[in-house]
Design brief:
Mean pLDDT: 83
Distance between the termini: 38 Å
Strand content: 5-15%
Number of strands: 4
Shape: globular
Low-confidence stretches: 1-24
């Protein structure tokens, strides 16, 4: 039992910081690395399930838009978030009003599909786990993915 506990402590969540492809349903490790290197000041809009990982990855330099503690954000804010993630009418205005400079999204989600078709946003990074978009006029450096 002690050996199992030691293995968990050693391999724990930090393994995702070193694994550039955490796999389907994994954490956006590559996207976080891209953002850290190329978008150091961008305000993030992110998938709900990745908020904790991104918060952990970027703390204390930046905040995330949403994480698993939705009760802290309030029902109205969370409802806006859900509608934005669903690419419902007004998603562009929500992101603009929040000053979002980068999104970290599941590539198969409705918001990623909407952003791919919107001239106001451009894809700057993509892997099997995540895609990063920035406003079309934003300056970025680096490459578009692994």
């Amino acid at each position: 039992m002690l050996a199992l506990w030691i293995g968990v402590v050693i391999a724990g969540p930090s393994q995702f910081r070193h694994d550039a492809d955490a796999g389907h349903g994994g954490y956006p490790v590559g996207a976080a690395a891209y953002i850290r290197l190329n978008l150091p000041a961008a305000r993030l809009f992110n998938e709900y399930g990745w908020g904790g990982y991104l918060l952990y990855s970027f703390y204390p330099e930046r905040r995330v838009y949403m994480d698993g503690r939705e009760e802290m954000y309030g029902e109205r804010f969370f409802d806006h978030f859900v509608r934005t993630m669903g690419a419902e009418s007004g998603w562009q205005q929500t992101l603009a009003a929040a000053g979002v400079g980068a999104t970290v999204l599941d590539p198969s989600g409705p918001l990623a599909a909407a952003m791919d078709g919107d001239p106001g946003w451009r894809r700057v990074y993509a892997d099997r786990t995540a895609v990063v978009f920035v406003p079309a006029g934003a300056a970025t450096a680096g490459r578009a993915g692994p």
